[in-house]
Write a structure and sequence with these properties.
It contains ten helices and 17 strands. The chain is of the alpha+beta class. It folds into four domains: 99 residues; 89 residues, Ubiquitin Conjugating Enzyme, CATH 3.10.110.10; 103 residues, RWD domain-like (Ubiquitin Conjugating Enzyme); 65 residues, Zinc/RING finger domain, C3HC4 (zinc finger) (Herpes Virus-1), CATH 3.30.40. Strands 1-2-3-4 form a four-stranded antiparallel β-sheet. A four-stranded antiparallel β-sheet has the order 5-6-7-8. It has a four-stranded antiparallel β-sheet with strand order 9-10-11-12. β2 and β3 form a beta hairpin. The longest helix has 28 residues. The protein starts with a helix and ends in a 6-residue tail after the last strand. The site of one zinc ion has 6 residues, from loops. One zinc ion binds next to loops.
Length: 371
């Protein structure tokens, strides 16, 4: 028994003459764990006790009953060690961070790379020294954050990078690459998006944005207030921010139709050398209400049914088409309201009924499930 133990696990050796205490290491997925096994005087494996290092203990948490069961069922120490290895392999799979504790040279490599890059750029590093957040500034002075997750085999294996961008962050990495080079690639990506953010920053500062509530750097959509219960949704292309964006006018038909006609008639006037906001003004022939001229409350009129503005993420964007009424409702509120009335008529997912405010005909589609 001892010889095969030595052969399979050269690091597990008896500590005493009686061969009741074995000490050493168990190797799983190229990682060594300290282990000690105390056998009773009759050397019955079923009644032996297992002592593990804290890391092994951590890994076996939740598997204790299996280990105990295997210990009781194993005919000898060798088969138990093999069973334990199987359990550990399963355990390691559910603890990816345990599997990837880097070798010592990883840390010296990281420190030298950070010295080249400059410590001032480091915003955060986690206690495992594997997740880094670096700050960067684009040429318009906007701050950005690059999150890097280094692999244990860094730099042989490419790190995972993420940032708040409207496009996927694609980084070229070779085993010779450094954090400094990675950072410079990120700066180039930021530069390629400067125009896109300039366009959106101008819109954000000079108009009232109804959606998203708090735009992030990756958001390409803006819903801009045009007037009372009228808004335009624009989708700016991050690669071609100066081009005519995808536009969608929202509000009561009588207010939206003239704007839609202007958009269609003036589309050809779109000038890529001018800013998107200027172009929108020229094409729609309107002045957008801005924080300088209007209070936001002018546009955030609450729903006529639930009396609130935001219903989860939705805003009251279903407006009564009667020009004298123009009451906004949440689509979901109006749908539920009309559906409950016997005077309403439903055809597929559309309900035909009367406006709860002015009794003029109103229709509403079942609200799409937000993902
Ligand atoms: Zn509502
Ligand atoms: Zn109405």
């Amino acid at each position: 028994m001892e010889t095969s133990l030595v052969k399979d696990n050269p690091l597990l050796l008896p500590l005493n003459k009686e061969k009741t205490i074995y000490d050493g290491f168990i190797t799983v997925q190229e990682r060594d764990f300290r282990i000690r096994i105390h056998l009773p005087p009759d050397r019955q494996v079923a009644r032996s006790r297992l002592h593990c290092c804290w890391r092994l203990k951590h890994l076996l948490r939740g598997y204790e009953h299996i280990v105990k069961q295997r210990l009781q069922q194993s005919p000898d120490l060798v088969s138990f060690i093999l069973e334990l290895k199987t359990v550990l392999e399963v355990g390691l799979k559910s603890f990816p961070e345990c599997r990837s504790i880097p070798p010592p040279q990883y840390y010296s490599q990281l420190i030298s790379e950070m010295e080249t890059l400059g410590w001032a750029k480091l915003l955060f590093i986690n206690t495992e020294f594997q997740t880094l957040r670096l700050k960067a500034e684009d040429s318009s002075g906007r701050e950005h954050i690059l999150t890097i997750k280094l692999k244990s085999k860094h730099p042989a294996e490419a790190p995972e990078c993420s940032a708040d961008l409207p496009i996927p962050l694609l980084i070229t990495w070779t085993p010779q690459s450094t954090l400094d080079q990675l950072y410079n690639q990120f700066l180039l990506v930021l530069e390629s998006l400067t125009k896109f953010w300039d366009v959106l920053d101008e819109i954000d500062s000079k108009t009232w944005i109804l959606e998203p509530e708090k735009p992030s750097r990756s958001d390409t959509m803006r819903r801009i207030a045009v007037g009372n219960n009228v808004s335009i949704k624009v989708e700016v292309d991050p690669r071609h921010p100066e081009m005519l964006p995808e536009c969608c006018l929202l509000g009561a038909e009588h207010a939206v139709t003239p704007l839609r006609n202007k958009l269609n008639a003036n589309m050809h006037l779109w000038n890529p050398d001018s800013s998107v906001l200027h172009n929108l003004r020229d094409v729609l022939e309107i002045e957008f209400p801005s924080p300088a001229t209007h209070e936001k409350s002018t546009f955030s009129v609450e729903c006529g049914i639930c009396y609130s503005y935001r219903l989860e993420a939705a805003i009251p964007d279903h407006v009564c088409n009667d020009p004298r009424c123009g009451q906004p409702f949440h689509q979901a509120c109006l749908y539920e309201w009309l559906r409950a009335l016997p005077s309403s008529r439903q055809s597929f997912n559309i309900v035909f009924g009367e406006c709860p405010y002015c009794s003029k005909p109103i229709t509403v589609k079942m609200a799409a499930q937000k993902s």
